[in-house]
Write a sequence for this structure.
């Protein structure tokens, strides 16, 4: 995301707010590195913004939300679901998909994006409050996650109708709750989104930043087509936990393993991850590659992938 | 309702802030030394919470709830400590650096530092270097804990350390840095005193800095 924005010399706030700039950044990545997929993911607050949250924008990093929209649990009662075609940031994502289709003509899969139930609940209420309220206001958190799930299903469907082939679900906050809570309350709502995306004819990528240790059984039941792995667990561990047929993506530490590393070390680290994964594996960083990553290190990633293709 | 003192440990472990407050109130009314409550019950409870967090038995909600329970007790104890000139084991100024609004990691560190017996002054997020300096001076801080979650905000950590140097008080504090993109190499490069990748070890190191064996 930020790397693509940097590549075309654009401010990241513009990259997030103008679908044309987002598309140009991705197309520049295609031209320069030959990436295999273009993505509409640029920041986690599009839906929250369209719900009415105020974002703070920066020229070199994703926007942030200082004052969360739901000040009290009762605010959920008056929260209105935004229209994905209502002209806000969700619409920008849909327009990005349409423009990708126009510019690429089907040569590359187009990845749309939605936030997962725990992540979006955190975006709307604030992560500190949500974490406490999973215990102190459990019914509110479940109601909020249900509300979010319905919103994200509609948003995913709109992106698929616009031409997205794959929808990413980002549910970072899910890594912060215990495995029982994840299995009982978060994963069933993620599954609703996954099933809706599949019913609409697209594939699903799940990205949970951080550690997913202890959650493998629940994740296996989701049926996602691609599971991203962050660097906090080994590929070997995730492969054992999810089985041989789950397509995995990852998992090199984007800072220590990509930005601050060397091409030869990157080659070795990717080779190790590849060996641990076996088949059904896509090489990637565990999470967002920082914008100041040296180009030779980014090239090293692609060089390894091409060397084994 | 009457409580047994040993229920205070359980109240913190289970995150029952109403019980921890009630038990503390009762104990103080009965003349129990407040530092006994802190040293013999609450700090051991938070040590256990930290252990469970490291062992993936406790996650963020459980840790925050336990910290809240301890805070509820400390709200009664802190004024007494001030009245009697009782000192915490150290003072920590904590914050997420300028340009960064992420706070969950910083909150975990602040919670565990309080649980470890430190008095914590949490400056929140997007904290300018000069705010850290002012707060460190105002509160006579021993430790300044800086958090960043983005590579683009990490430079603010160096700017903050530079601000302490410019203010002439760099040698009066220990500066800790942490956050997902931060590492030991970066900490060394910018002249931080310590880098830790989790809240529990940050507290252990903070205690060592104060000369307390862990």
């Amino acid at each position: 995301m930020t790397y693509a924005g940097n590549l075309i010399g654009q401010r990241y706030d513009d990259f997030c707010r103008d679908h044309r700039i987002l598309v140009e950044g991705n197309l520049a990545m295609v031209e320069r590195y030959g990436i295999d997929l273009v993505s509409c993911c640029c920041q986690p607050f599009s839906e929250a913004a369209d719900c009415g949250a105020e974002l703070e924008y920066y020229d070199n990093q994703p926007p942030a939300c200082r004052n969360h929209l739901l000040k009290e649990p009762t605010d959920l009662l008056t929260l209105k679901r935004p229209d994905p075609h209502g002209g806000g940031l969700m619409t920008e994502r849909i327009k990005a998909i349409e423009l990708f289709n126009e510019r690429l003509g089907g040569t590359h899969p187009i990845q749309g994006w939605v936030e997962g139930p725990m992540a979006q609940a955190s975006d709307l209420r604030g992560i500190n409050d949500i974490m406490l309220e999973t215990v102190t206001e459990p019914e509110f958190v479940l109601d909020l996650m249900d509300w979010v799930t319905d919103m994200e299903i509609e948003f995913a469907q709109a992106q698929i109708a616009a031409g997205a082939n794959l929808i990413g679900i980002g549910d970072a906050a899910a890594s912060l709750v215990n495995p029982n809570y994840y299995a009982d309350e978060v994963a069933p709502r993620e599954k609703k989104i996954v099933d809706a995306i599949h019913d609409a004819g697209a594939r699903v990528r799940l990205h949970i930043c951080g550690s997913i240790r202890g959650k493998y059984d629940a994740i296996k039941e989701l049926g996602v087509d691609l599971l991203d792995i962050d660097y906090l667990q080994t590929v070997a561990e995730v492969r054992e936990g999810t089985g041989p047929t789950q397509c995995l993506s990852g998992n090199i530490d984007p800072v220590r393993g990509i930005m601050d590393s060397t091409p030869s070390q990157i080659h070795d680290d990717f080779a190790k991850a590849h060996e641990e994964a076996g088949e059904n594996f896509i090489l990637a960083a565990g999470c967002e590659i920082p914008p100041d990553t040296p180009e030779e290190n980014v090239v090293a990633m692609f060089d390894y992938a091409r060397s084994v293709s | 309702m009457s409580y047994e003192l040993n229920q205070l440990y359980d109240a913190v472990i289970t995150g029952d802030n109403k019980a921890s407050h009630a038990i503390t109130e009762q104990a103080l009314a009965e003349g129990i030394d407040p530092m006994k409550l802190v040293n013999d019950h609450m700090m051991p409870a938070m040590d256990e919470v930290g252990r469970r967090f490291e062992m993936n038995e406790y996650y963020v909600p459980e840790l925050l709830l336990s910290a809240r329970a301890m805070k509820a007790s400390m709200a009664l104890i802190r004024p007494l400590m001030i009245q009697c000139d009782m000192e915490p084991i150290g003072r920590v100024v904590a914050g997420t650096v300028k340009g960064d609004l992420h706070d969950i990691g910083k909150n975990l560190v602040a919670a565990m530092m309080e649980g470890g017996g430190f008095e914590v002054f949490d400056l929140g997020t997007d904290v300018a270097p000069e705010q850290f300096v002012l707060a460190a001076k105002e509160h006579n801080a021993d430790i300044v804990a800086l958090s960043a979650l983005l590579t683009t905000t990490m430079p603010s950590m160096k700017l903050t350390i530079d601000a302490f140097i410019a203010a002439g008080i760099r040698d009066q504090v220990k500066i800790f840095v942490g956050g997902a993109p931060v590492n030991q190499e970066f900490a060394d490069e910018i002249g931080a005193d310590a880098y830790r990748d989790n809240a529990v070890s940050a507290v252990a190191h903070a205690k060592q800095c104060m000369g307390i064996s862990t």
